[in-house]
Amino acid sequence: MNVITLAHGAGGKETERIIKSLFLNYRIRKVNSGIGLDAFDDGSTIPFGGKHVVVSSDSYTVDPVFFPGGNIGKLAAVGSINDVAVMGAIPIAALDNIVVEEGFSYNQLREIVNSMLEVFEKENIALLGGDFKVMPRGKIDKIVISTTVIGIADSIITDSGARPGDYVIVSGTVGDHGAVITAIQSGIEAEIGDLKSDCAPVTRIIQIAKKIGEIHAAKDITRGGLAMALNEIAEKSRVSMIIEEEMIPLKEEVIGLSELLGIDPLILASEGKVVLIVDRERAEEVVKSLRREGFNEASIIGEVKEGKPGFVILRSSFGGLRLLDKPIGEITPRIC
Amino acid sequence: MNVITLAHGAGGKETERIIKSLFLNYRIRKVNSGIGLDAFDDGSTIPFGGKHVVVSSDSYTVDPVFFPGGNIGKLAAVGSINDVAVMGAIPIAALDNIVVEEGFSYNQLREIVNSMLEVFEKENIALLGGDFKVMPRGKIDKIVISTTVIGIADSIITDSGARPGDYVIVSGTVGDHGAVITAIQSGIEAEIGDLKSDCAPVTRIIQIAKKIGEIHAAKDITRGGLAMALNEIAEKSRVSMIIEEEMIPLKEEVIGLSELLGIDPLILASEGKVVLIVDRERAEEVVKSLRREGFNEASIIGEVKEGKPGFVILRSSFGGLRLLDKPIGEITPRIC
Question: Less Cβ around it within 10 Å: N or C end of chain A?
């Protein structure tokens, strides 16, 4: 490894590899019995006062800054909220750091910030502070936003608790956000039609499912798409999965754009959807509850199996099996 | 305001103005009785389990990335630690988000990350997680790092508790970091000599002072330098200050570089020094303790006065008085 490549930031295998090479010799990886660096989970936890303080921080570099269904401000709020929400926490506070290019339009900045604040307000999240920096013209492409979200949980959901026999649920159609951004980056925005990024907080989804019973594992579907989310859960839980391809909810437009782009829709980010792993006895009820609450495309898509830890198998409607691996390479740079 | 200028990010009056215009209509500004957006303090607090969770998050864009005394990784660790430490908390955990330019050297990145981790390790801070993104070549200048630091405090120190009669202490020489960075940016690095950035954690300084007795106000000296730190304390505490110019510890090299650059050294960032406001009865003892522990330049530099809230007056050795105002304009872009 001599220089950093776009693949290192794409959220797939190369990202895992560089993060491990940079950070895994660091000695202090968690606070007491909390979840920290080793877990590579969506958020981290600090046990405190009989509860869990859950925290996540991400930087958002999405290009374009404005896109159908949102902008970088909305995405920066949603992305960090979701990493805290899938840990089972209720987000209560946020901080934001904005780094913007000299000469950027004040009105556009205001629109971006307002979109971010609108998400925080709807979720009843306090904005506690942050940072504001300007880089000279040409030294940064428009704007980068980092958000940190803090939540409180009575009990924690990890991405490593899937058990053989459990069912795999997705909360809605996958790949919408990734299809929109990739299409724009590839210069085929004319083909997007009415498709929008699905970026939205998933806090309600998790809380609805939690009411039915324990969630064994949860993960939001971001860089690397459904493929990455399922692989991480399977690997960390030391189980395999059989996923029924025809059960995966996909919008017609996402299928169409994926074909045009020559990309598997299952590696496209969603930013408003989650994978839930629950006891098979409760899976139907979780899906029903989600649909009743407006998540109409929530679906059981497969089953957790024993053996072959880390393998995710996709079964087509004709019965053919193929391995659904972690994505490799660039995928789409600056997807989130 | 049509477009964003470098002055908006310089940490002076224009930064205050734009942050207020963007964020001050937001409704949810704190968690319960904690310190949040309104306070514009160094860190924020969440009351929890009978204690205070203290959190701060900043983005670091310093140019050059490597400089005498440190690099962007060390600075990113130190900067966010210091914002938590001056609130009276012991930092316990951190998250880091790295956004790096495609083509950046892996070895340099490793050196930067190692410098950051070295600071965290010395301070016994757990690294819980973070983010790693790559932007295409030319879309970001080398590297931007955002760090979030979380600490726990039994009691909180603000920047608004200065009382008339209190003494003003600085923990060491001011302006070192700012002088080094500005000299390099101005192309006069040959003049820097042995001067180094003073970037270092201030946790010990605060804890040493705390042992002597209550600290009425504290602030680290970052963008806008000593001038900004004193003005913010005076303004928020609704008091004035008289500062004795000759008592301010300044390195010869900083004075020399400031003259060459035509900049007041009192607006240059320090990144390893703090202002402490303490009861006059205890001020001598605080300074003695600090010197005993190796902070040899710690000094009483002035006194808090009643009336004229927000005014900071500098008295020269000849008795002349001048107003030490908040800095205006660009100062040095990308100082931290």
Answer: N
